[in-house]
Write a structure and sequence with these properties.
alpha+beta, Arc Repressor Mutant, subunit A, 13% strand
Length: 113
């Protein structure tokens, strides 16, 4: 199986959340999902680093949102997935499904210890 795109595990997670949040994703919203929904402790700087790497790869694009009183008048950077990002996620999903399909049945026949 030849892979066109390379996504690390954390990048894939962040990209999935950007896609799920459909044009409403920003650093804190992604961090909150990772912590609350996935039960994983993460700091905002690692989320931002992943977002900027994804943007450099062309998997996401960003634009500045409007200022809000809640943020002291500061604007937030909103991220959305690109068509290349969608292709990368599909490729990652297909690679995982292929590998799971290769798993011999006996591997999970016994209880996991």
């Amino acid at each position: 199986m030849t892979r066109k795109y390379q996504l690390g595990e954390f990048e894939e997670t962040v990209l999935l959340i950007v896609a799920v949040q459909h044009g409403q994703a920003y650093g804190m919203s992604i961090t909150n999902v990772i912590e609350a929904e996935l039960g994983r402790s993460v700091n905002m700087s690692s989320v931002h680093t992943a977002l900027y790497r994804l943007e450099e790869k062309g998997f996401v694009k960003s634009e500045m949102g409007g200022a809000s009183d809640q943020r002291g008048g500061r604007r937030k950077r909103i991220f959305s997935i690109t068509s290349t990002g969608k292709e990368a996620l599909i490729e990652a999903r297909d690679a995982r499904q292929y590998l799971w399909g290769q798993m011999p049945d006996f591997v999970f026949d016994n209880k996991i210890q």
